[in-house]
Amino acid sequence: MKxxxxxxxxxxxxRESVRLSQxxxxxxxxxxxxxxxxxxxxxxxFPPYGVLMQYADFFDVSLDYIFGRTDNPQGxxxxxxxxxxxxxxxxxxxxxMCFDPNSPANAQLKETLLRLMGExxx
Length: 122
Hints:
Layout: H1 6-17, H2 22-28, H3 34-42, H4 49-59, H5 63-66, H6 89-98, H7 104-120
Helix pairs in contact: 2-3
């Protein structure tokens, strides 16, 4: 018998934390029946996205918590620093070129930004 995944453990833990049976929980979810809840909690099946969203909404927890990315039910905090931006020499060169006053890219960037600001003010 395989060990349930972190997702299966979290789903079961959430249900048990409010003392609901699998059948009563399924009754609160749209399109989910008790046998499916059993399979999700045992790790025999992985719940579809829509079901995971129902869990998150019903228990008021983040998907980060359900997926085991954090033990904080509110979720993990992000700084929006995509790895693609880190140590990217091409991006660094582009930025330097755009802010070089002698570069044609600088004039294009300035024109684009002014145009965007003008469109926002309309």
